[in-house]
Design goal:
- This protein has helices spanning about 95-110, 125-135, 150-170, 180-190, 200-205, 310-320, 325-330, 335-350, and strands spanning about 50-55, 70-75, 80-85, 115, 140, 220-225, 240-245, 250-255, 265, 270-275, 285-290.
- It has about 375 residues and is an alpha+beta fold.
- A 6-stranded antiparallel beta sheet has the order 9-8-7-6-10-11. Strands 3-2-1-4-5 form a 5-stranded mixed beta sheet, with helices on both faces.
- Helix 3 (about 150-170) packs across helix 4.
- It catalyses: DNA(n) + a 2'-deoxyribonucleoside 5'-triphosphate = DNA(n+1) + diphosphate.
- This is Integrase catalytic domain-containing protein.
- GO terms for molecular function: DNA-directed DNA polymerase activity; endonuclease activity; hydrolase activity; metal ion binding; RNA binding; RNA-directed DNA polymerase activity.
- Keywords: DNA integration, DNA recombination, DNA-directed DNA polymerase, Endonuclease, Hydrolase, Magnesium, Metal-binding, Nuclease, Nucleotidyltransferase, RNA-binding, RNA-directed DNA polymerase, Transferase, Transposition.
Length: about 375
């Protein structure tokens, strides 16, 4: 019943006294609920693949340069090694998990015995059920609205997002580059040591992490353009970019072009300088990587490889006399010399058994042949 005597001066406000039986065990349950801290209830695993915790993060408000809006996080419980995969749609979750499972099992030579996820539709579906039954692994699903039951993936998800957000703010990049920040954060978490002093990278790969190759996210870099991709001799040999992550376990770097905001994958090695985006930090000389299919330069530059000034004009004239095709070679003024050289080359190939002459059959696919000609100096062998 309302007790107006204990109400406020405003008669429209009334305090209601509810009867409460203090002896009832439910009396302490109907008050304001407090979330109890969950203790570790996961079964200890003794090897890689014993349990993999997975979670999906998204949908991101900003679409990345490659059109992705989600990322799937997968954490191996034994090593703590984290993997992130970027998706355009939720429907790609199952295929991304299958790809991870195949690579992890082949790398570790061990089967995945258990996966832990929430009850989202991207995990609880016929594809996952059928795959778990065929492959023989357990799929543990946390109860609804209890992220603490999937705390390994949830904690990893939150940690990746927080650190990736810090990288984005530090470099002042647009939100389109969130996958690069997320991928870099994942790699940094893997190489950082845990409480026992061992990093997830060390336990997963059984080798020390490449911490000497780490660089500050967002450094300005100058990348050398491969000779084969230069359109003229007076074109710039460098392009300006920003370091946005790592490739091949930090043996290479991902560089974004400042002009077109395109991120190039790394392949061949070059020596160049990184310039800090923050003033006051000294420049450091490191290896950076050119675009895919670039020419790999392995020789060191020395004075012996540089032509003297007197021979440069002679070298230029000789280069202009080098034929570009077979017909041009045999029809030139040195055609007899080229024919003799071609005959010797063919004779050497026959001695080495480079090919076998036989009749052509319909199933054969001819391969194009290209002759490459060069004028050797007197001191060249």
């Amino acid at each position: 019943m309302p007790d107006k005597k204990q109400g406020s001066r405003n008669k429209s406000k009334t305090r209601y006294q509810m009867p409460l039986n203090k002896k009832s065990p439910m009396a302490s349950k109907i008050g304001p609920p407090q979330q109890q801290g969950n203790q570790d209830t996961y079964t200890d695993v003794q090897s890689c693949g014993g349990a993999v915790h997975i979670d999906l993060c998204g949908r991101m408000h900003t679409q990345s340069l490659l059109g992705t809006r989600y990322f799937l996080i997968l954490i191996d419980q034994f090593t703590g090694y984290t993997t992130t995969k970027f998706l355009k749609q939720k429907e790609e979750t199952f295929s991304s998990f299958k790809e991870y499972k195949a690579l992890a099992e082949k790398f570790n030579q061990r089967k995945i015995f258990k996966i832990v996820s929430d009850g989202g539709g991207e995990f609880v579906n016929n594809c996952f059920k059928r795959h778990a039954k065929i492959e023989g692994f357990e799929h543990s699903i946390s109860p609804p609205y209890t992220p603490e039951h999937n705390r390994v993936a949830e904690r990893g998800n939150r940690l990746v997002l927080e650190k990736a957000r810090s990288l984005m703010k530090q470099t002042r990049l647009t939100d389109q580059f969130w996958p690069e920040a997320t991928s870099t954060t994942t790699f940094l978490l893997n190489v950082a040591p845990k409480r026992n002093g061992i990093s997830p990278y060390k336990k997963w790969f059984n080798q020390k992490p490449p911490v000497s190759n780490l660089r500050t996210f967002g450094f300005k870099a100058w990348v050398r353009i491969p000779l084969i991709k230069r359109r003229s001799k007076f074109e710039s040999i460098l392009w300006e970019g920003i370091m946005l992550g790592y490739e091949n376990q930090a043996s290479a770097y991902r560089i974004s072009r400042l002009q077109d905001k395109r991120v190039d994958d790394s392949c061949s090695e070059w020596e160049d300088e990184f310039h800090d985006a923050v003033e006051g930090i000294p420049q450091r000389r490191i290896r950076i990587i050119g675009p895919r299919h670039a020419t790999l330069i392995t020789g060191d530059v020395s004075e012996a490889n540089i032509l003297p000034y007197q021979r440069r004009a002679h070298q230029t004239v000789e280069a202009s006399m080098i034929p570009n095709s077979y017909q041009q070679a045999i029809n030139s003024k040195d055609g007899n010399k080229w024919k003799e050289a071609i005959s010797k080359e063919l004779e050497n190939m026959q001695k080495l058994g480079v090919w076998t002459i036989r009749d052509k059959i319909p199933q054969d696919h001819p391969i194009a042949c290209t002759w490459v000609f060069r004028v050797k100096e007197d001191n060249q062998k």
